[in-house]
Structures are given as structure tokens and as C-alpha cells.
Amino acid sequence: MPEVYRQLDDTLGALLARRKSHGRLRKLSNTPPNSVDFSSNGYLSLSTNPVVQKSLLARLAAEVSASENGNRSRGSRRQILGSGGSRLLDGNSLFAESLESKIAAFHGAEAALLFTSAYDANCGLLGCVPQVGDVIVYDELIHASVHDGMRMSRATKKIPFAHDSMSEASRRRCTGVGASRPARQSKNQGLDDVLRQISESEHVRSGRSNVFVCVEGLYSMDGDVVRLNEVVRSVDRHLPSGNGYIVVDEAHSVGVFGNDGRGLVCQLGLEDRVWARVLGFGKAMGCAGGVVLCSSTTRSYLINYARSLIYTTSMAFTSLASIDVVYSYLMDGGAGPLRQDLEKLIRYTHHQLSVLCVRLQVDRCTLHVQEAPSKSPIIPVFTAYPRSLAEHCQRSGFMVRPIVAPTVPAGSERVRICLHSTNTTGEVDGLCNAIGIWVQDRVAVGRDDESAEDHGVAEPQNVFGRVKPRL
Question: Which one is the CATH code of 335-471: 3.40.50.300, 3.40.50.1240, 3.90.1150.10, 3.40.50.1970?
């Protein structure tokens, strides 16, 4: 390292050391090939589905063949591995446009616009649509990509609202020596109160200022679902001028909810009441990329003003083909049995974890789960010692991740269990058994005074490498 750069490295190193001292240092890690996956977001296991894989390989082979024929007849090959540039320059194609039409029709939307990721989609949408004088109201637990989009936005105000005010989590209680988990303490007002206050502004009341309300369909850390019907009613009640625009991030809910996996908005029949939806293909859909579902006018506006679209190399044919194959699989009903298996496994897993908590009779600080059965494949196991529990499960062959602040609010640390359609009840039993052994070991050695490591002051090393929170 040249000496001229040493001062900056020293500054960055000090910042990393400070983060490490607080137990928040993130590092890359690899999942051992023989461990049972209870961590990744591929809820329907489509990325390893043999039918999907064969369809994609056949599609790619057909494209290579067509490219070779085109090379002989026209003197040029089709682009397969790369796209050639951004959508506005050389990266557009008839295939990309037809895929957008296919996606829009499947989800009951007027139009769709593909992005390289759901992160870019959120940044592009929120970064350019809200204008000066507009207001963005957002769930306090909304994804980081929405925050980054808001930072680029020209909206005059950005106001958070309490997550539990419009989340099913507020209707759940948690087990653990018979006690209930108290509602999450939030310094923010509920959505109703926020909208009531901003509607007192003449610009908002008259409709001259727009209000964008941002929520997620399924929250990736708590596994809870937004009460979207209530969000719609609240917007209608406080913004009768029609200047309330709901944005739903369905990155985790698409593929999981709705007929054929169309998502939460379609499941509730709110396609005409939600202004824009952002879907991510890297979770249940098993591939990569993102899309904004919106009106044709909004799509055209994004093409002109969304920086994360304009200045990004567009997706290659391989990425587009994988999305197309997965949507065809959904449309043919292939994912229906997978979703049914997943729903059964969700109920079974929650039951087993609840029984475990009751049987162990430990304090809720050590271990507790939500009392009501989850609707999603994301099940948090709350514990004040997430790293210790995650390390034990990993050593036992079960890949779970510890989730700590700042990924989740301090005091709500947990180990997150992500279920997949290919997981078995036997694997769930094995995981529950590992958790039970961890609890019994703690009780046996009387770990009342926890080490600094368990309180997140230092980052422990686990058998598979260092762990990091999953965003």
C-alpha cells in the first residue's frame, strides 16, 4: 500500500474497529455444501428446481442455435452473455419488452419496467417521482433501498410511521414461560395519526401536494404481513382528494402469496388501489432482477428520469430468460404444489418451536417465538444471544443466521429461520432438537452472566466462518 493512502486506511480501519467492538462487523461467509438451508430467501426452491433448470437450459441452447444461424445469414451473432449497454442505448430488446408485458399481465398491472434489481427499482422509483412539495410516508422498518431512494428524492418531507400500526405483528403475542412479548416500542406515530396531521396542510388537503405511502408486503426480518386493506382505508379516509399513492415492495411476498404466486396485492384484489409495486426476483422467484408495476405514463417517466435505469447496463439475455422461464412455470401452475408444501411446513415448524418453548420453560430473554402461527416462510426465533444460538445450530449442520442491530432494532435480536418447499419435517425436527440442546446447555452451566461476546461486544468466530446479518 503506497504511503500516501495510509492515512485514509487508518481512518477506515478505526471505523471498522469501532464497529467490531460493538459486535456489528459484517464479513462475507460461505454456506457449507452439506448444511441444511434454513437461511436463504429461495422459499420455493425454484433455483434448484429440475423442471425450471431444464427449461432454462433448453431456452439458452435454442438461443445459441439461433445466434449461430444468424451469424451465417446476417454476419452478426445475437448477444447472450451481455446486453451491450443501458436500456436507452443498446441494451433494449423486443424480448425485454415482451417480458415486461407478460409480467404486467400476470400481475394485473397496466405496465411494467425491468430493473437489474429490486434495490435499483426502489431507488429509481422513489428517487425521481416525488416532487418538491410532496410527502413520503414510510414504514419505520422499510427496506434500505427505499431509504436510499428517499435520500435522492426531491420530496419536501419524509415521515416514518410505527410499523406495528399497520402490521399483523401487532396482533400477535409471543410465548416463553407463559409471558407475552410486549408490543414493539416506537417513537413514531401510527399511520392514521401521521396522515391525519399532514392532511391539515392546505397543500395536501387541496391535492396540490402528493403523499406517497411506502410499505412492504412481507417483511423479511419479522416475517409479518402488512394490513394492506387498512392502509388503503387510511389513505382514503385522510386523503379524499385522491393525492395518496401507495407503494408496495413485494420483493418477499411475490411467489409466496396470491393465486399462482402473484403477490399480496393480487391476493387482496387491490391492483387498482395500489399505485406502484416493486417486485424482486431474487427471493421466492429463484432468479435475479426487479420490476416496477405501474401505469404506462409512470413507466415512460421512469425511462426518462430514473437514474438507476438510465445509467445502468441492462440485464443480459441469460437473466431475462431465467425470469421468463420462472413466470412460465408459475403460469402453468407448477409452483402450486410447492406453495402447498411450504404452507404445511410453516405450520409444522411454528408448532414445533412453540411446543419447544413451552417444554423448556425458559425465560423469554433466552428464547421465544411468536404465539400466532406465521403466514410466511420467515420465522424469527427471538433471543438475546443470537450469535451463540446461530453458531450452535451451524455446528449441528443447520444454516441459520443471527440478526442483530442495526439490521433490526436493538432489543429485538433473533435468529431468523427461512423455510423452503424442499425442507422436510425431519430437518425441522433436527433444527428444533439443536435449539433445545443449546438451551439446555445454557441452563446447565448457569449462563446468567453472559460474556461480552453474547451481548454483541465482540464478533465470535463460528465453525463455518464469520456470520453476518442477511438484509
Answer: 3.90.1150.10
